[in-house]
Input
Amino acid sequence: AQSVSQHNHHVILSEAASLELGCNYSYGGTVNLFWYVQYPGQHLQLLLKYFSGDPLVKGIKGFEAEFIKSKFSFNLRKPSVQWSDTAEYFCAVRGLGSYIPTFGRGTSLIVHP
Amino acid sequence: DGGITQSPKYLFRKEGQNVTLSCEQNLNHDAMYWYRQDPGQGLRLIYYSQIVNDFQKGDIAEGYSVSREKKESFPLTVTSAQKNPTAFYLCASTMGGTNYGYTFGSGTRLTVV
Output
């Protein structure tokens, strides 16, 4: 069975600070990896995904994530956060050939102006 | 615009009553999912369906039922057997195959009093 661990449940930053949200997964085979964002009052949106190829993936709004296979990690980064990045962030993993993603518990990010 | 429509946005029911949450998609997606979102617990899979007239239980199916009579519709019934029904419910869909991400609806917040 696959599982996902997001280490930071709550993160509070000031604008312009750098962001890194941790995501580790447990799965023995090839995986697809996702980061989703849920802005207050809105539905989940895909930030970025990794299926294969370059392990450094760039997504929308200046976010990027790096897949490190040896560490089973897919951490999300942004060099300089904005107040509008305040949201909940979910990491998800799906085993290759599976239709079912497993989501982490989410990280609540608050950015102070 | 294509997307997923969940209705209603807010729903109140008395304890002991069954209630059905609607999920409709016009994306021509094959697979549909129901997740429950609770604070600090992320998204947990209730049921999923990969094709019409077929569905499988997820991790927390007890107290819930679904149907998939049409490709575009995947309603969820929260029965009186569900012990803690108050939650935020999310519907999602994806194309068939495993090369795609997931599209989410805006959710239904169910409160049982």
